[in-house]
């Protein structure tokens, strides 16, 4: 699916090296409208706290090693087959506007399914704001 306007492809499986370790970021984009890098981590299973910690580290590393002074903070996106709301609630995702986790689908859902998903998400956000 299309990411939207302003995205430029930077790298696939980008190799990041520290003094002691090697890491590979699945996809890296730069958004010219947002003026920031967007890191995408692809997970073929459900969301885990380890995946969130990994993306947190990638975003911090990218901000330190790649981001210029004119750039906004790096955004990290985790795409997974299943999002566990409890893990999201008690992780860095709940407090940070730079990290996102979302479920992906291998096919485009029917219009009715999309409407139901949007309504469910809207109700969840309303309940979350109440607490």
UniProtKB/TrEMBL annotation:
Pfam (any one): YhcG_C
GO molecular function: nucleic acid binding
Top-rank lineage group of the source organism: Bacteria
Domain YhcG PDDEXK nuclease: 1-116
InterPro entries: PD-DEXK-like_domain, tRNA_endonuc-like_dom_sf, YhcG_C
Protein name: YhcG PDDEXK nuclease domain-containing protein
